[in-house]
């Protein structure tokens, strides 16, 4: 009886420390590359004001059109998960990207294809970032609420 009581007590303690999720969907987690916490590694990029100065408005317009085209292409290819500008700030941060990639070098290649970065209008800083593996799942919803395309 004493052994049975110890076993039940041990089982109760184990249950207290184990927090299984009743809503867990293994197939979905696997399809998104999630770890046991539903997370995965991404690359977080901060765009900052670069050293290049472009005075010609027509040239600047072409460079920013290329910037947007690169964002759209990478997003459509499933490589760029999040992109957006930042409000004016003292750090001269201009925007962020979150990439799904295999290496920092891969992200650097994506950034080189952006004319606003390759000409020096923007500079970039790349960081490893641990976030929800479900992050890419919002993209189809965004397409449904986007009234105007860039």
UniProtKB/TrEMBL annotation:
<feature type="signal peptide">
    <location>
        <begin position="1"/>
        <end position="22"/>
    </location>
</feature>
<keyword id="KW-0732">Signal</keyword>
<protein>
    <recommendedName>
        <fullName>YCII-related domain-containing protein</fullName>
    </recommendedName>
</protein>
<dbReference type="Pfam" id="PF03795">
    <property type="entry name" value="YCII"/>
</dbReference>
<comment type="similarity">
    <text>Belongs to the YciI family.</text>
</comment>
<feature type="domain" description="YCII-related">
    <location>
        <begin position="42"/>
        <end position="127"/>
    </location>
</feature>
<dbReference type="InterPro" id="IPR011008">
    <property type="entry name" value="Dimeric_a/b-barrel"/>
</dbReference>
<dbReference type="InterPro" id="IPR005545">
    <property type="entry name" value="YCII"/>
</dbReference>
